[in-house]
Amino acid sequence: MTGRPPLLRRIFGHSVRQRLAVGVALVHALLMVLFVADITYRQRAVLAAQSTDHALGLARMIAVNSVSWVLADDVSGLAEVIDSIRGAPDILYAMVVDPRGRVIAHTEHARLGLFVVDEVSRTLLAGPDRARTVIATAQMVETAAPVVVAGRTIGWARVAMDHRPQGAAMRATIAEGLAYIALAIVLGTLFALWIAGRLTAELSHLSDETNRLRDGERSFDRVAEPCREVARLEQAFLDMAETIWTREDQLRHTIDQLATSNEDLERFAYVASHDLQTPLRNVGSYAQLLARRYRGRIDADADEFIDFIVGGTKHMSAMIHDLLDYARLSSRGTPLEPVPAGRALETALANLSGLVAETGAVVSAQDLPVVMADESQLVSLLQNLIENAVKYRHPDRRPEIAVTAEALPSHQWRFAVADNGIGIEPEYFDRIFAIFQRLRPETGAEGTGIGLAVCQRIAHRFGGRIWVESVPGRGTTLFFTLIDGRAPPAISAPSPATGL
Question: Is the predicted pLDDT of residue 496 greater than 50, yes or no?
Fold first, then answer.
């Protein structure tokens, strides 16, 4: 009903109770109006027919009783005939005319001897010799009957009846009809309100039970003696609730299993990294000792091999350290809270001040919004993205990096970190977020290839996502979304154990 005009929407309202009451009242009113109009039309036709028949009967009676008096040309006798109907109700006038149109008897004596010369009278005198209606209007009807002797018409008896008294009867009928209309509307509306009251009470009960289920309760009070439709709706709702409860239990079980698995993985990562660090540190220490004591004393190949061992152990140590930090992103994070992204960017740039100064990079940023985040992890997110942009700079131009944010309609902000570096081929867009992926080792940039994987995990923990757009040779833009910190939607914070 969204296409209804505002007026009809206001009339019908927004509740089932109001719509049903208004609808029934309108239907009753329409049906009763049609019924009263039909009755009025039929009664008017019946009254008109009765009046016409009465007038024709009086005209025939006068014609029959006037035969001898017309033959004798006895005006007093004709007057007696006319006077015999003078007291009849609704009579306007009665008269007898001879074949020439001369009035030889009339209820108004002043008209005796006059000639009727109007068009109706001329048509009557010239027309067929049979009783008929000569004038019929809303106000009156006039009928005429021939005065016949031996098949010869010797005059005409005419009677006019007044229809105006019928108007009073019609008005009384209409008044009764309006009273019936009002009574039907009232009774129909009361009945509709009673039906609507029962229906809305049952629907309100279902709504209350829905709110209880939403609040976590698993009991359900059924409606007492519901109508068939509400019973079907209630059963469908119960089936849906049972399905939701079952899936909720399965999901809770899966989450518990995942939490346990993640805890085991984090514990394994911590233990493995800790246990690996000691022998790796020993290997590195002895390799460095060999380098100090025997560099240049054996041969060039030995020096190169020792350098490989030292470099490999350093790289392995960095990878283990980064892996441990990656595993701890969820468990060591703090609850999300409103954080000024501009302040996090300032911290990230302070941490990168040496690299920025060394490369001559230019980092620009607009006013950044307040977002829902863990500030230390937001600093890490921005720092990793800017550091990547500087590391993978174009050799022929100074690095230029722009950090911007655009508001989205879903209470989110879309951040963009754009650079003018070497760019990324489209086939690698998905791979760059995988752990330990380094697509450009030939650039000589330091790192283990875990930075963008950390960025992706942080963005997901904050309830957003991250993606890349790039043109090889011209630059790369990394986008990520974060929830608006000024009016965040009602969402559940990610579980520290699962990171979900």
Answer: no
